[in-house]
Task: inverse folding
């Protein structure tokens, strides 16, 4: 009975893996673990296909983070297990049953990895414009661990002019100790859909690779002339992708060389302690060691980045308020990928 049951489970795993176009989950000693690579190779020809693919990739990501953490845990790599499960619990709209199943193992993995004071990763609130793999709204857990308690910094962004405070990016830089090691984020995706970049603002640590995916039924040409992170993704058809690794901190404005109305931002920070503000302006940065920090706040409507010094105590810091401007003047023209003014007769 047990042998037949195991064969049945194995068969289901094989069929499921083949359906994803990926290698089957191997039994111990039989091969490699199912990988984390996205996106799935599913064709996109209709708007319904886009919704299906986005949902499938989300489930694929959840499965790999959940089960991949367990594999790392069982081989004794508790730090890797904790990292995967912390990333999992930050996904917006996660099923509470998954959190209940993962939480005891995550707490144990943290303790075994020498992080008994590590704060539990929160479940991020759902963001209306976030696509699959693009919901890294809150700070990633830092890869280094100090002898100080790791706490939370929460606050509110105000200002932002007519667009409001949402989408502001806040990050912390240590002033009274060595700089924290920055680890690139995983599975970061910006889609082009209905001639719009989703999400409109993506905050990532330096070294992160971002995948740009065309989910429209028309061509796009994503590019940026923001040095030293400039790039040209070329003309891409429906379902095509382009990957750019952002190796330098800074604000990268994204444009499309075909559609002048499209723009978005990738904010690359040289810190593991960062967050993107919700539409209300609220933000939370987790797993911050106590100490003194320079806090920076960027907003697309502000002409300057705001800086202030804060002290994070052993109980964390609450109700931090940061006012950003709304005084940024619009550019005289929308450039093409060569930095030139676009020619109106070309119809874009």
Result:
């Amino acid at each position: 009975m047990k042998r037949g049951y195991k064969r049945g489970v194995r068969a289901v795993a094989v069929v499921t893996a083949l359906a994803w176009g990926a290698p089957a989950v191997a039994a111990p000693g039989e091969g490699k673990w199912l990988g984390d690579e996205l996106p799935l190779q599913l064709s996109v020809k209709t708007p319904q296909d886009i919704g299906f693919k986005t949902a499938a990739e989300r489930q694929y990501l959840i499965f790999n983070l959940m089960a991949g953490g367990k594999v790392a845990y069982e081989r004794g790599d508790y730090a890797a297990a904790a990292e995967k499960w912390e990333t999992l619990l930050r996904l917006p709209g996660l099923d509470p049953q998954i959190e209940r199943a993962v939480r005891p193992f995550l707490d144990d993995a943290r303790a075994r990895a020498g992080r008994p004071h590590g704060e539990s990763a929160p479940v991020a609130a759902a963001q209306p414009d976030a696509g699959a793999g693009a919901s890294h709204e809150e700070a990633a857990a830092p890869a280094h661990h100090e002898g100080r308690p790791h706490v939370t910094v929460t606050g509110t962004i105000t200002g932002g002019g007519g667009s409001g405070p949402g989408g502001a990016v806040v990050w912390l830089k240590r002033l009274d100790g060595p700089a924290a090691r920055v680890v690139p984020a995983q599975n970061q995706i910006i889609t082009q859909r209905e001639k719009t970049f989703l999400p409109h603002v993506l905050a990532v640590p330096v070294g992160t690779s971002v995948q740009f995916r065309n989910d429209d039924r028309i061509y796009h040409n994503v590019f940026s002339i923001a040095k030293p992170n400039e790039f040209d993704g070329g003309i891409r058809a429906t379902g095509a992708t382009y990957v750019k690794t952002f190796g330098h901190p800074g604000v990268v404005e994204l444009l499309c060389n075909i559609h002048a109305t499209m723009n978005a931002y990738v904010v690359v920070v040289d810190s593991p302690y960062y967050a993107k503000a919700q539409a209300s302006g609220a933000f939370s940065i987790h797993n911050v060691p106590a100490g003194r920090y320079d806090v920076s706040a960027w907003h697309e409507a502000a002409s300057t980045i705001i800086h202030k010094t804060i002290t994070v105590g052993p109980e964390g810091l609450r109700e931090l308020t940061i006012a950003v401007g709304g005084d940024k003047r619009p550019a005289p023209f929308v450039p093409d990928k060569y930095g030139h003014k676009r020619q109106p007769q070309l119809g874009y």
Observations:
- Helices lie at 2-19, 47-74, 78-89, 96-112.
- The first helix runs from residue 2 to 19.
